Amino acid sequence: MIMRSILLIGLFLAAWGPAASAQTISMESFLERVRSTHPFFKKETLAVDVERKTQESMQGDEDWVISGSPSYVHMEPARAGGFTPESIDQMRVTVGLRRHYWSTGSTLSFDFGHTYSDQKTENIELPLPTGPLALPNDAGPFHENGLSVTYRHPLMQNRGGLLSRLAHDLQGFNVVAARIVAMENQENFLLNIGGKFIDWALLTEQRSIASARLELAENEAARTQEKRKHNLVDEVDVIRAKDAVITGRQNIRLIDSAMAGIEAELRTIASIETGVKLTPELDLYSLAGDILPMAQSLERLGESSRLLSVFDIRLRQVDSQKMGASEVDKPRLDAVFQGGVKGGAQEFGDATQMDKPQAMAALVFSYPLGATSARADIAKSALQRERIAEERNNTLFDLRGALGNTLARISVLEQALALDRERIKIAEEKTMAELKRYNQGRSELTFVIQSRDSEEAARLVHAKDSADYHRLALVYRALMDMLLPASPKGDQR
Fold it and tell me: Which of 221, 295, 340, 471 has the most other CB atoms within 10 Å of its CB?
């Protein structure tokens, strides 16, 4: 008795184990898992990060820049007189610190310089009655130190720093555009994977329909064999019943083969372990509740389409380029202010006392005659804007056409699904009538089998039409940018 109880418990656990590991997964959960695990999404995110880092690298133009310049000069001037040096040796070290400010376009710099010079000059001889007198003419070594602050401010071209930050601002548009394009690529990827999920759900439903048909065929074959034992039916009915069973089993094998393939593919795409039994959770026969009428769909498409927003971003980018070209076309007028102190002496220590103030103010003007490059860039920007605007209109036409096509097909399929349901109902009634006639001996089994095959075919057509409907609903959601969150709006930065 104990051994029998243990055996029963073991059989119970063996039967419970596979059932416990079986799981259902909805399309929304499946697509969310794909988004979090598939490398395609990481790749698209990295593409955006590259553009963002490119923009960040341009901010280095505002960093403090330190510079240094040591130099040594040796000269032997042509002798023009007694006061001309024989040779000059000069060593100079300059250290600077400079920063550019985008908010104003100005530049601030600090510079420190130390110069050491040594001149060799012959002594001056004075003829005297007592003999020539040599007067020293050598200046000797000399040290000079200087500290200065220079501020340069644009008054016309680049006033407000427009040109200084132009490259950074233009790259900001590229960052937003790359993010939107990445989202569009991700959505198209999900659209393709969602279609495969619907195929999986369709195969699951087809197997359920085929299994129900096989069960009826097996039951009918068993009853036919029992009737044959009592000579109530002919041998040909038994053969027909067996043939229906074999046909049903073959259909299931074909469906199982297709299911195994697509399930293996989807497991790999979503990184789902093979030890878990999965079943797609999708109500094929339900209608989508988020499909708007044509007028509302077109209005929403024009207002929030990601693809159209990319063109809007490019239009803003071209406008910024044109502003930059117009700025270059302006004359350049800069105000320059410089102040500092200097000190010099023959001894290095004395030269550190920089007590000689220096000051300078200047206006620097320049303007290229003709400004050919700037004006050509302005004309080029205008042509680019016109081309992008036409591309946007062309894309809008394509999107409207695709949306109209999708909604029209959805409407026709909704009518087809209603007819499918009527056809199934009629097929069921026909099967009941044929079965009743056969049981009364007024018909052959062939008509029952044909009627059940017709009923199965009607259910399969209904399942296929329902799957096509859900595929079109998925396409509609992709066109309306509903498979992913809305694209970022607002400033390009």
Answer: 221
Indicate whether 151 and 238 sit together in one domain.
Answer: no
3-state helix, strand, coil in the chain (%, to 5): 60, 20, 20
How far apart are alpha carbons 457 and 81 in whole angstroms? 119
Do 236 and 286 share a structural domain?
Answer: yes
Among residues 290, 266, 212, 262, the alpha carbon closest in space to that of 470 is found at: 290
pLDDT digits over 404-436, tens only? 999 999 999 999 999 999 999 999 899 899 888
Alpha carbon distance 398, 393 (integer Å): 9
State how far the Cα of 174 lies from the Cα of 320, in Å rounded to an integer: 13
The structure tokens listed for 189 are 């990827």
Taken in order 399, 401, 404, 407, the sign of the CA dihedral is negative
Assess whether 218 and 265 both reside in one domain: yes
Confidence of residue 251 (pLDDT cuts 50, 70, 90): very high
Query: Are 341 and 385 within one domain?
Result: no
Residues 86 and 177 in one domain: no
Q: Provide the strand spans (E) within 27-64.
A: none
Does one domain contain both 153 and 173? no
Contacts of 397 (CB under 8 A, 6+ apart): none
| 177 within some domain | yes
Question: Does residue 490 form part of some domain?
Answer: no
Q: What's 462's domain CATH number? A: 1.20.1600.10
Q: Fill in the DSSP letter of residue 489.
A: -
d(CA 98, CA 92): 19
SS3 (DSSP) at 105 = coil
474: containing domain? 23-55+168-318+376-479
Query: 160: left (phi > 0), else alpha (psi -120 to 50), else beta?
Result: left
Question: Domain total for the chain?
Answer: 2
- Please give the Cα distance from 367 to 307 (Å, whole number): 42
Residue 17 in any domain: the answer is no
Same domain (yes/no): 148, 214: no
Residue with tokens 């040096």: 85
List all residues 6 or more positions away from 362 whose beta carbon is below 8 Å from its beta carbon: 335, 336
86 neighbors 118 (Cβ within 8 angstroms): no
Asked if residue 14 belongs to a domain, the reply is no
How do residues 121-154 score in pLDDT, each as one tens digit? 666 666 666 666 555 555 668 888 889 999 999 9
> Position of tokens 């018909």?
443
Asked if residue 149 and residue 175 are part of one domain, the reply reads: no
Contact predicate 270/38, CB 8 Å: yes
The gap between the terminal CA atoms of the chain, to the nearest Å, is 78
Question: Do the Cβ atoms of 275 and 212 come closer than 8 Å?
Answer: no
